[in-house]
Amino acid sequence: MIETEPVDEKEKKKEDEVLKIKPGVGESSKFGETITIIIPEVKYKYPDFTDGYTLLQIEDFAEKHELNLQIKYKTDDSLPEDTIIEQDRAKDSDVAPGATLTITVSQKSQIVETPEDGTNSGEGETTDTETGE
Q1: Under 8 Å between Cβ of 115 and 123
Q2: Structural domains of the chain, ranges and CATH numbers in brackets
Q3: 45: Cβ–Cβ under 8 A, 6 or more apart, which residues?
Q4: Short-list 4, 2, 21, 22, CA closest to 13
Q5: Comparing C-alpha atoms, which of 39, 43, 29, 28 is closest to residue 1?
Q6: Closest CA to 53 of 76, 75, 85, 94
Q7: Residue predicted with more confidence, 78 or 40
Q8: Mean pLDDT in the chain?
Q9: Burial of 85 per CB tally in 10 Å (0-12, 13-18, 19+)
């Protein structure tokens, strides 16, 4: 029989590592008695993606943990483009396969030049495409 025991990922246990055997080492058992092997059930936690993670690293994390990744973009000219601004899963909360992880990523303003007379000659005032102003 195989049983699992919850283990934090920080303990660096492999999912196929034997933690314990019942009856234990040196203990006797009778013929036909069930022997139980206990392996780790690794509990993965969400990191703080806003602390230097790249979009590629988050995509890899989502794939490894079978997450549905949703990416939102927010215009913020004060940050480098593709900076992770926020995430909807709290740091250190448990990762569950099949869950949705939504992150918000910075993007620069999209500037579209329009002429002052309203024609599209490419000269004149600028408009932020996100706000339309």
Answers
A1: yes
A2: 1-43 (no CATH), 45-133 (3.30.10.20)
A3: 8, 9, 91, 92, 93, 94, 95
A4: 4
A5: 39
A6: 85
A7: 78
A8: 84
A9: middle
